Write the structure tokens for this entry.
Amino acid sequence: MKLILCKTYEEMSMAAADEISALVASNPCCTLGLATGSTPIGMYRQLINRYKKGEIDFSGVTTFNLDEYYPISRENDQSYYHFMHQNLFDYVNVPKENIHIPNGEVSDPETECQEYENLLTANGQIDLQVLGIGQNGHIGFNEPDSSLWALTHITDLTESTIQANSRFFEKEEDVPKRALTMGMVTILKSKKILLLANGKNKHEAISALLDDRITTSVPATLLKTHPDVVLICDGEAYYG
Ligand code: GLP
């Protein structure tokens, strides 16, 4: 695992945007795996600025998002569909038809997950998957458990994730209790993985990622089996 230790959130966001810019410049028709949460917002801001300055062109890029709450309407301002449009897609030129986000509105989530996984397989490998990390070490919405699902699936959120994510909702009861998420194998199939983490509250999860053990009780530790992971984090996440 390669480590890029940054002094500030701004520096982290620049470093992450640099990775994406370099990839899109060398492979304009690449596939990006994208993440939500507060962590990648600065990176998306950087990418929007670079696009406005004509430094990056997304016209050939395809994107697949990691996850979505279930059930949730795309119009709900807490949906990841809404998040991605508000923080990136409304401001850059990724073609609409190239944008993929699991659909939290469907009545049959199992079929939606199967179709999402099939679409990913048909598209070919994700060139670069961006990840944040939950305080409990979850990746996407792969929550700590005694076993993990390999492919895209519907999952229950843990109490700690519902609580952590309730800061975005009016009240905790409004947080959906389930989500659609790529599985750990779906994620590990990506050519390269970029994991972003900042703040003290991520220190425990990052420590588990940096020690020698792999355990499904900290899903992020499975990333140790991947040959090309870049961890971009700040001192608080790294040192505690
Ligand atoms: C959510 C998302 C994850 C994200 C995590 C951390 O649960 N499903 O993909 O990594 O939150 O979010 P934040 O970056 O806001 O700490």
The longest strand covers residues 192-197.
